[in-house]
Amino acid sequence: MPCWLQIAQGLLAPLIAIITTYIAWQQWNATKLKMRMERYERRLKYRRLG
Q: Which of 13, 20, 24, 37 has its CA 20 to 30 A from that of 30?
Protein backbone atom coordinates (compact mmCIF):
# COMPACT_ATOMS: atom_id res chain seq x y z
CA MET A 1 0.00 0.00 0.00
CA PRO A 2 1.42 3.43 -0.90
CA CYS A 3 2.64 5.64 1.92
CA TRP A 4 0.29 8.51 1.06
CA LEU A 5 -2.69 6.17 1.24
CA GLN A 6 -1.72 5.01 4.73
CA ILE A 7 -1.36 8.62 5.84
CA ALA A 8 -4.75 9.50 4.33
CA GLN A 9 -6.38 6.56 6.13
CA GLY A 10 -4.79 7.63 9.40
CA LEU A 11 -6.06 11.19 9.06
CA LEU A 12 -9.56 10.23 7.98
CA ALA A 13 -10.91 9.25 11.42
CA PRO A 14 -9.72 12.43 13.19
CA LEU A 15 -11.05 14.55 10.32
CA ILE A 16 -14.48 12.93 10.60
CA ALA A 17 -14.41 13.48 14.38
CA ILE A 18 -13.56 17.16 13.94
CA ILE A 19 -16.32 17.68 11.38
CA THR A 20 -18.85 15.87 13.58
CA THR A 21 -17.85 17.95 16.59
CA TYR A 22 -18.22 21.16 14.57
CA ILE A 23 -21.72 20.17 13.40
CA ALA A 24 -22.78 19.27 16.95
CA TRP A 25 -21.43 22.59 18.24
CA GLN A 26 -23.36 24.50 15.57
CA GLN A 27 -26.57 22.66 16.45
CA TRP A 28 -26.02 23.40 20.15
CA ASN A 29 -25.55 27.10 19.39
CA ALA A 30 -28.67 27.18 17.20
CA THR A 31 -30.73 25.51 19.93
CA LYS A 32 -29.39 27.90 22.55
CA LEU A 33 -30.30 30.90 20.37
CA LYS A 34 -33.77 29.48 19.68
CA MET A 35 -34.43 29.00 23.41
CA ARG A 36 -33.22 32.53 24.14
CA MET A 37 -35.53 33.96 21.48
CA GLU A 38 -38.51 31.97 22.78
CA ARG A 39 -37.91 33.29 26.31
CA TYR A 40 -37.65 36.84 24.97
CA GLU A 41 -40.89 36.46 23.03
CA ARG A 42 -42.71 35.18 26.12
CA ARG A 43 -41.43 38.09 28.21
CA LEU A 44 -42.37 40.57 25.51
CA LYS A 45 -45.87 39.10 25.34
CA TYR A 46 -46.40 39.56 29.08
CA ARG A 47 -44.98 43.10 29.02
CA ARG A 48 -47.40 44.08 26.28
CA LEU A 49 -50.32 42.65 28.26
CA GLY A 50 -49.32 44.32 31.53
A: 13
